[in-house]
Amino acid sequence: MTIPETQSLPNERGRSTAELLSDTRTAYAPGNQTTSTILVAHSSSKVSRMTLRQTLLHMLFLWICSEPAAAADPRPVQVYLLAGQSNMEGQGVVDLDHPQYYNSGKGTLQKLAETPALKERYQHVRDSDGNWTVRDDVWCRYRTARELKRGPLSIGFAVYEGRHHIGPEFQFGHVIGDSSEAPVLLIKTAWGGKSLFADFRPPSSGGETGPYYKQMLDEIREALAAIPDEFPALADRPVQISGFVWFQGWNDAFGPQTAREEYEQNLVNLILDVRREFDVPELPVVIGELGNDGDQANDQIKAIRRAQAAAAARKELGNHVAFVPTTAFARPANQSPNVTHGHHWYGNAESYFLVGDALGKAMLKLQTAARRAR
Q1: Number of other residues whose CB lies within 10 A of the CB of residue 100
Q2: Which of 277, 348, 285, 317 is nearest to 112 (CA)?
């Protein structure tokens, strides 16, 4: 989706249409006495009625043609906030295939895209030349410990340097972008090994507010303020925060028992506080299930899953929150790149792709339901 730029076209007197537009808006503003003055001047100069009519039509034409692009396309940038811990950071392997370290590339995005049976599912991730697709209507921003990653959505918006990993943002952005007529910006904030109980602890939960809750908000504000400089194609457009995505839970599952017991309420408080912070009381929220290890997960993980589902159903959140099951997206270690990293879905790109796909579709469903309810 290309955003056209306003051009300044010369008129017969060498003045730009932007200058003429300014003069015309002033001269013909409702209630402005200049309007009658111009008409009187033309009459006193014995200008023919046809000449006057032609002059006014010409000025009106130039006014219309010089309207800024944003006026023709005033749709705001749709901003989605993505937050969580290491699985939101992005651990899905794209193309690394070392026999010892990456299990010869099993479960990488490249291998998946080359699998005939999966061709339709992954056909959009590469172009006709075999290069990884770069969208022109969806952008992403993610600050890692090493660098600020920003630009059009493609592979590589993950915690590692280079372009060899993806997180849920990859397919989430494709799903949202395909359904949106407005430009989309994903702002991702994620840090590995962080709990909701302590690190992301929201103010409404009492006690000390988590440092990563504060940092999440700081980075979001920073990103919003930097849009004109970092994303020139989105400059001069209004901004609308359209959704919040939460994908986290591992550290609470394996933390103190209190973390599991409080998870439901802490998650409710997190959602309410984020909505309050950005003044969007009915902000759509999708919660990605802690689906690691699929049906074989232990009791701690299952406790967090129950808490996530229960939080999404809480009445105080309204009908604007969805719990997204992900256990079906877990893949075996022997079919994945990182065979010892169960906490990272074994690095399987299919898992991260399907999680992002489900999160995106759930977000669209929430938004459709909200529009119908208006």
Answers
A1: 6
A2: 348
Residue of 211, 205, 122 whose CA lies nearest to 171: 122
Q: Is 188 helix (H, G, I), strand (E, B) or coil?
A: strand
Does residue 209 sit in the same domain as residue 283? Answer: yes
Query: Contact, 326 vs 288, CB < 8 A?
Result: yes
Q: What's the N-to-C CA distance of the chain in angstroms?
A: 28
The count of C-alpha atoms lying within 13 angstroms of the C-alpha of 103, restricted to the half-sphere facing its C-beta, is 19
Q: What is the pTM of this model?
A: 0.82
Long-range contacts of the stretch 116-124 (C-beta < 8 A, 24+): 122/353, 124/174
Residue 121, in any domain of the structure: yes
Decide if 284 contacts 370 (C-beta within 8 A). yes
CA gap 268, 68 in Å, rounded: 42
Q: Which helix (H) or strand (E) holds 83?
A: strand 77-84
Tokens of 287: 């919660």
Write out the residue range of the structural domain in which residue 125 sits.
75-373
Q: What pLDDT was estimated at residue 374?
A: 82
Q: Is residue 8 part of a domain?
A: no
Whether residues 139 and 172 fall in one domain:
yes
C-alpha pair distances (Å), 215 with each of 91, 201, 226: 22, 11, 16
Residues in Cβ contact with 242 at an 8 Å cutoff, skipping those fewer than 6 apart: 78, 79, 80, 284, 367
Total structural domains in the chain? 2
Would you say residue 197 lies in a domain?
A: yes
Residue 317: inside a domain: yes
Domain shared by 133 and 114, yes or no: yes
Three-class SS of residue 247?
strand
DSSP secondary structure of 148-196: EEEEES-TT-SSSSSS-EE-THHHHHHHHHHH-SS-EEEEEEE-TT--T
Helices (H) and strands (E) in the chain, counts: 14, 9
Return phi, psi of residue 110, to 5°. Answer: -65, -45
Q: What is the pLDDT of residues 38-63, one digit of tens each?
A: 333 333 444 445 555 665 566 655 55
> In the chain, which residues have pLDDT < 50?
1-48, 69-70
